[in-house]
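Subject: sequence -> structure tokens, single chain

Hey, anyone have a minute? Need the predicted structure for the following. Not urgent.
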Amino acid sequence: MNSYYISRKLHEMNRPLRTGLLLRSAGLGALALAMTATVPTLAGGFSNAGKMNLARSGQAAMLLADGQVLELGGNNSLAAEQSADLYNPATGKWTLIGNINPRGIFGYSAVLLPDREVLVAGGRALGGPMTNSAALFNPSTGTWTPTTSMSTAREGCLLILLSNGKALAAGGDTNFSEPSTAELYDPATRTWTPTGSMTGSFNGYTAILLGGGEVLALVAEVSGGATDLYDPATGSWTANPPPPPALSGLVGLLPDGLAWGADILYDASTAQWTTFAGPSSRGGVCVLATGQGLAAGGTFEVKARPYPIEETLKSAELWDPRTLAWTSIANLNVSRTGQSMTLLLNGQVLLAGGESFDKSAGALVPIASAELYTP
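Reply:
Had a minute. Here:
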């Protein structure tokens, strides 16, 4: 799915979290034992990684097979929406790829396919309604090729790659309604086919592919949070146990297969949730190769007249799976929130773009700067 929705959700949830109950002590104990020999001492720091060619906030970031990182789009300008920045860790250079979105679509969802192309689906045309159109972007050639359209117009839909190589699109917003329908994209035939509908109409998503191949979708609705579980084998959705309150979304899988978020764990084998105190740094989060969690940036409110001002943080924290606790580490070089955070093949994390407080503007503005976290 479009990283704008995940990063914006984290940005908006800049508040203390309640500490939940330990729901599965045996599983967490096993996790602690497994991680004891592999989790290093809490350390690490941030270094400058240059600048993207354009300021980007809420962009879709993905690690390509060759180790480069594609920063696609951004919600801050038409120029950002119609381009991408490609980061090469070997050289530390950023390359601008233009004209990838000539129609000016924003609010789309994107996912990297097994053939190394990027599927971009849905969104909203500038000055127009939501669209069901889809296209393929080839990072190697910089070309943008239309493909078969979805059956339903969707903005901000769930879009995730399944273990069978197909892409699942579900829900989203479509011209003042929220469809529960879902469909599958087959890269081999470049066609969409319908699959089972979600158990309800929802208006926000984070999703993760579980170890067994099922998709756990964390969804928001008027009455509160809910989860839906999609089984590719049957093409059906089932309602899952609802998540605890005050959670920040699912980010990735830990080495033992537990689904992890900044203040949440989900055990698919027991369908149980565990909550813990979240970080104060809520600009963005990711799972490290060590099984630790990294949180960086965020916002805080400053009293001012006539209205309070929201400024950005430089703080960063590491989550330890042995203790379920967050510990402060060295600060970011640039205060930011809503940045992309991508784990590189060498274990470093690339933090790119987002928004930073601008004193002259007195507001948050999109930025182009990037930095690397080295464990």
